[in-house]
Amino acid sequence: SSGINAEYGDVTKLGDDVREQPVAIVTLYTAPTCSLCEEVKEELSLLRKTHKFRVESVNISEPGNASWRRLYKYDIPVLHLNGEYLCKHRLNSTLLLERLATAESDAA
Q: Cα–Cα distance between 4 and 99 in angstroms, integer?
């Protein structure tokens, strides 16, 4: 097991001639006993109702994730957007929404 769980948003197919827009990926680095991580998961779930992005959770305590554990063991929750560091300890929703808007305009 890679230690990555993905939650996918609704996908609407408009037709074969419409190019599907890539969906932004928010990666949440977490661990089972992290109460702040649970709060961030709830906040992300609410934001996903109005903004299009996918959430991937990486459990840093799993054996295959030792490098992430060394890097983030004192900082979880840590969030990345499309592979780039976004924030730690708490969700900075303003920054996330700004970066999502930038990612959408870059993809358009």
A: 23
Exposure string over 42-80, b if 16+ CB within 10 A, otherwise e: eebeebbeebebebebbbbbbeebeebbeebeeebbbbb
Q: How far apart are CA 35 and CA 32, in angstroms?
A: 8
Q: By C-alpha distance, which of 28, 30, 27, 39 is closest to 62?
A: 30
Answer for the pair 88, 81: CB distance below 8 angstroms, yes or no: no
**Locus of tokens 């109702």:** 49
Measured CA to CA, the distance from residue 82 to residue 46 in angstroms comes to 19
Q: Per residue in 81-101, pLDDT tens?
A: 999 999 999 999 999 999 999
What is the Cα–Cα distance from 44 to 96, expressed in whole angstroms?
Answer: 10
The better pLDDT of the pair 10, 80 is held by 80
Query: In the numeric block, which tokens belong to residue 64?
Result: 């295959």
Which residues face 54 on adjacent strands?
25
